[in-house]
């Protein structure tokens, strides 16, 4: 990789090995990019397009795919979080991170439907094990334990004792995939707001799902600074010279 080509070589001991291995010193740092990153004469803004890879963007801007490393040094957000994903990858990531299901209650549930207990849909016969509760949103996250699915539009759910007697019951107003459930609600000013779960969020609040949050974060990664084409070669040369200790 072009970025590492002039990193100094050091002897490094891996794990419990007694032998030293010659390798590039990946901790080397040159603050050249840090010094120019806020100078508008050196950079311009760019919006990363869907499926646009760093090496492709480097070739697109500079006619050379070697300068992709500058995008990461110039932008802390993609250096920390990585290159933005395309939409299908964002959806897949949300599904992997939030793989369960969620239902909402429009009633008090402080002393019922507790974590690690099971419940059953009175109409569907579906069953689930409760994993988490969010009393502020009136939500319960569960792992479905049956092949049958709960009724998405809502149904009465019950809990039973060992003899099959109903001990708790409540109206699950909606059932949905966890990644499509509410993470929080916002008002018209994009501020996170609370509401009474007994009443519901109403029409004036906007539901922000877990998938929405992933999309928003991913979209923010797309807006980056890039070095202007007329300075890229000079910056690259100065960077490599700083690594090698030469003055060109």
For this entry, give a set of tags.
three-stranded antiparallel sheet; alpha+beta; six-stranded antiparallel barrel; 2 domains; 248 residues
Summarize the structure.
The chain folds into two domains: 30-84 and 222-248, no CATH class; 92-217, no CATH class. It has seven helices and 13 strands.
Structure, explained:
It is built from 7 helices and 13 strands. It has 2 domains: 30-84 and 222-248, no CATH class; 92-217, no CATH class. The model is unreliable at 21-30 (pLDDT under 50). The chain is of the alpha+beta class. It has helices at residues 32-36, 54-62, 69-74, 76-81, 87-97, 210-221, 232-244; strands at residues 9-12, 21-24, 43-47, 101-105, 118-121, 127-134, 139-144, 155-160, 166-177, 182-186, 192-193, 206-209, 223-227. Helix 5 (87-97) crosses helix 6.
Residue fraction in strands: 25-35%
Choose one word for the global shape.
elongated
Count the beta strands: 13
Largest sheet: 6 strands, antiparallel, barrel
Going across the major beta sheet, what is the strand order?
Answer: 4-7-6-5-8-9
Radius of gyration from CA coordinates: 27 Å
Report the total helices: 7
Average pLDDT works out at 86
H/E element sequence: EEHEHHHHEEEEEEEEEHEH
State the low-pLDDT regions, or none.
21-30
Distance between the termini: 21 Å
Structural class: alpha+beta
Which percent range fits the helix content? 25-40%
How many separate domains make up the residues? 2
């Amino acid at each position: 990789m072009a970025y590492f080509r002039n990193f100094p070589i050091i002897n490094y001991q891996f794990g419990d090995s007694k032998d030293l291995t010659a390798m590039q010193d990946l901790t080397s740092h040159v603050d050249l990019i840090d010094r120019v990153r806020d100078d508008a004469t050196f950079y311009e803004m760019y919006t990363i397009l869907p499926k646009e890879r760093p090496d492709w963007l480097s070739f697109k801007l500079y006619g050379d795919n070697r300068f992709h490393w500058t995008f990461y040094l110039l932008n802390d957000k993609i250096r920390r979080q990585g290159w933005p994903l395309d939409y299908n990858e964002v959806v897949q990531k949300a599904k992997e991170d939030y793989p369960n299901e969620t239902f909402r209650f429009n009633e008090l549930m402080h002393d019922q439907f507790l974590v690690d207990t099971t419940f059953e849909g009175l109409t569907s016969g579906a069953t689930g094990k409760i994993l988490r509760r969010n009393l502020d949103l009136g939500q319960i996250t569960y792992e479905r334990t049956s092949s049958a699915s709960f009724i998405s539009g809502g149904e009465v759910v019950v809990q039973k004792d060992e003899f099959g007697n109903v001990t708790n019951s409540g109206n699950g107003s909606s059932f949905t995939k966890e990644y499509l459930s509410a993470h929080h609600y916002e008002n018209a000013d994009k501020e996170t707001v609370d509401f009474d779960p007994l009443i519901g969020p109403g029409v004036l609040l906007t539901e922000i799902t877990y998938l929405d949050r992933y999309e928003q974060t991913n979209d923010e990664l797309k807006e980056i600074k890039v070095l202007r084409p007329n300075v890229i070669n000079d910056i690259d040369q100065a960077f490599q010279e700083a690594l090698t200790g030469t003055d060109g």
